[in-house]
TrEMBL record:
Described function: Catalyzes the phosphorylation of the position 2 hydroxy group of 4-diphosphocytidyl-2C-methyl-D-erythritol.
Catalysis: reaction(s): 4-CDP-2-C-methyl-D-erythritol + ATP = 4-CDP-2-C-methyl-D-erythritol 2-phosphate + ADP + H(+)
Pfam families the record matches: GHMP_kinases_C, GHMP_kinases_N
Recorded family membership: Belongs to the GHMP kinase family. IspE subfamily.
Domain GHMP kinase C-terminal: 196-272
Active site per UniProt: 9, 135
Residues involved in ATP binding: 93-103
Name the record gives this protein: 4-diphosphocytidyl-2-C-methyl-D-erythritol kinase
Domain GHMP kinase N-terminal intervals: 65-143
Gene field: ispE
Pathway: Isoprenoid biosynthesis; isopentenyl diphosphate biosynthesis via DXP pathway; isopentenyl diphosphate from 1-deoxy-D-xylulose 5-phosphate: step 3/6
Amino acid sequence: MLYEKAPAKINLTLDVLHKRPDGFHEVEMIMTTVDLADRVWLRPSNDGHINIKVSERFVPNDRKNLAYQAADLLRRKYGIRDGVEIMLDKKIPVAAGLAGGSSDAAATLRGLNRLWKLQLSADELADIGSQIGSDVSFCVHGGTALATGRGEKIEHLPAPPNCWVILAKPSISVSTADIYRNLDVNSIKHPDTAGMLEALQTGDYGKMCASLGNVLEPVTMKLHPQVVVLKEKMEQFGADAVLMSGSGPTVFGFVRQEARVSRVYNGLKGFCKEVHAVRMTGERFLLD
Ligand SMILES: C[C@](O)(CO)[C@H](O)COP(=O)(O)OP(=O)(O)OC[C@H]1O[C@@H](n2ccc(N)nc2=O)[C@H](O)[C@@H]1O
Ligand SMILES: Nc1ncnc2c1ncn2[C@@H]1O[C@H](COP(=O)(O)OP(=O)(O)OP(=O)(O)O)[C@@H](O)[C@H]1O
């Protein structure tokens, strides 16, 4: 049995440049992994099938699961006949803007690369992953990166300055496709991507806080006012800066002072079932 960690991501910035002829949006976003992770186990089986077992009742255990799609893609591409059992222990909130499914798919790609001795590089796996979803390429590499194109073009960046990240997910589900559909590309207020890049290069915490921005945030907030309330609460409880991740609805807040972490965490617990205090790991997966 083989184990892979599948960490969640947050978006420090998310900008949309334009809508493409293929219906997707050309994005420019800075993402980083946090130490909240699903756990993925892979066990070879000789029935020639891909079997998924998931700890979470609402997550599909058939070909709709992104980990299934990752295994299926590799099997077809490399003519593999072996079966595999994939066990997913979900810790990342589902449909949250934290790339849970994408990270499971990425971990499956990394794990099967080892199990089936395919000797593919991280870039090759990321390329295969982009066929599953826009966030899978980033999740194959992890760490901190600028993602462009549909999200599949990755440039590695230095890890963010050290701080706590409080994640809070309201109990609503958000469809990424719906949020992009409701975005008016002509009235976008673009985030300061250059400022965020500089903050990462220089390790400037204040500048990182000031440069957070996500063009999908107002779209999700309009459809789900709970996200506005949650962001305000997090600010009131003392987070240094707050933003929605991806298409939402998870909101994250940075807290540098150790003493404030429990105040923000406990305060939010009163409003929200799913609250986590995590760190940005900056941990990149290097394949051998
Ligand atoms: C919001 C983010 O999570 C930010 O990291 C990503 O942009 C979305 O990544 P994802 O969930 O992996 O998205 P996909 O599964 O590829 O696409 C879901 C849907 O979102 C829309 N979509 C996604 C990515 C993109 N660059 N433009 C889009 O318009 C499309 O309607 C697509 O059908
Ligand atoms: N392994 C998986 N884990 C969770 N959800 C999955 C998985 N595979 C498929 N899904 C489906 O994908 C949907 C979105 O789940 P996911 O947790 O990946 O969303 P997300 O965090 O918003 O992703 P992203 O940030 O990439 O948009 C779920 O409602 C579920 O039906």
